[in-house]
Write a structure and sequence with these properties.
single chain; about 350 residues; Farnesyl Diphosphate Synthase; two-stranded antiparallel sheet; 18 helices; 2 strands; about 0% strand
Length: about 350
């Protein structure tokens, strides 16, 4: 079975336009099944600390495990055997990601996450924040266990970027002066930073040289930005039954994403409609205004412009990727970019 999977990956890469996200990701997960199972074991192998009981439901609820998947695939780019530290570092990235989710839910006053009540709804805001901090400590302990001199600085840089981007987003939301450039700065810090961490680790684990690692982190940045723009598009035009989230959740939290900012810049007459929906709970939004804004976003070109930026980022990502060794792992990563950015949930 193991021998057949790489050939299947190549087949999927050639016919990716006919591949659903679920089918493509299933093949990738099958290829990496043993390591992904080990990541799950580490994520849920919690001790009896009070914070563990708060964080455990979020970790056990799953999620797509996109960042561990990226790291494990990219760690096979070189000609070395997969490193024994790959599973631990993939878990590190997922711990940091989930720590940010616990913190974000407090900031955004979120009620539900992954189909379950958020930690803050069950335990309160203060305890949820401490549980997020505890996950960061778990990540640092795992890093220490690897003994890799490059692992801690990369994680600290990532956490620094996350914090800076969170503060910037709040400041921009309060000022009401956010621009497309500001939006890109925020998502680079909040989303692309975690992709960069995953691929930075993968580059070292794969034994890539300095130039190759730089190409890989460039790939990570473009993928992370494209991934977030697609996520923001789904918030506006996606199917809530597939995404699992109500429409216009970002506006409800006061976040102006790329399509909204594009529309405000080109057609400012729609500002009143947007303001009426901003900081309004999704269940209390005027349905007619929501439908009107969805139509305007489509007819104005805002959705198409956002999709063009996604395509631009994908082209840049593939340009970086094509400079790396031609391996099955590289084909897997190319496939992954198209599946992640073409997703509907």
């Amino acid at each position: 079975m193991t021998e057949a999977i790489p050939q299947r990956l190549e087949d999927f890469a050639r016919a990716v336009e006919n591949t659903t996200q679920a089918e493509g990701l299933a093949v990738l997960r099958q290829w990496l099944a043993e390591d992904l199972a080990a990541v799950e074991d580490l994520l849920t192998e919690l001790n009896q600390d009070r914070a563990a009981g708060v964080a455990e439901p979020l970790l056990a609820a799953g999620g797509k495990r996109i960042r561990p998947l990226c790291l494990l695939a990219a760690s096979r780019l070189g000609d070395k055997e997969p490193s024994q530290h790959a599973v631990g570092l993939a878990t590190v990235v997922e711990y940091i990601h989930n720590a940010t989710l616990l913190h974000d839910d407090v900031v955004d006053l979120a009620v539900e996450r992954r189909g379950q009540p958020t930690a803050r709804m069950i335990h309160g805001n203060t305890v949820a924040v401490f549980a997020g901090d505890w996950l960061l400590v778990r990540a640092l302990r795992l890093i220490h266990q690897t003994g890799s001199p490059w692992a801690l600085p990369a994680a600290l840089d990532c956490i620094d970027e996350l914090i800076e981007a969170e503060i910037l987003q709040i400041e921009l939301s309060q000022s009401g002066k956010e621009s497309s450039a500001d939006y890109l700065r925020v998502i680079d810090g909040k989303t692309a930073s975690l992709f960069r961490l995953a691929f930075t680790y993968a580059g070292y684990l794969a034994g890539l040289d300095t130039e190759q690692r730089e190409q890989l982190t460039g790939f990570a940045t473009h993928l992370g930005v494209a991934f977030q723009i697609q996520d923001d598009l789904l918030d506006l035009i996606g199917d809530p039954k597939q995404t699992g989230k109500p429409l216009f959740g970002d506006l409800a939290e006061g976040k102006l994403t790329l399509p909204i900012l594009w529309l405000l810049h080109r057609e400012p007459r729609h500002r009143s409609t947007i303001q009426a929906l901003t900081h309004c709970a999704p269940e209390k939004m005027d349905i007619e205004r929501v439908q009107q804004l969805r139509k305007v976003l489509s007819s104005s070109g805002a959705i198409d412009a956002s999709r063009e930026m996604i395509e631009d980022r994908l082209r840049e990502a593939h340009s970086n990727l094509d400079r790396l060794p031609k391996t099955v792992a590289r084909s897997a990563l190319r496939l992954m970019t198209q599946l992640l950015v073409g997703r509907t949930s």
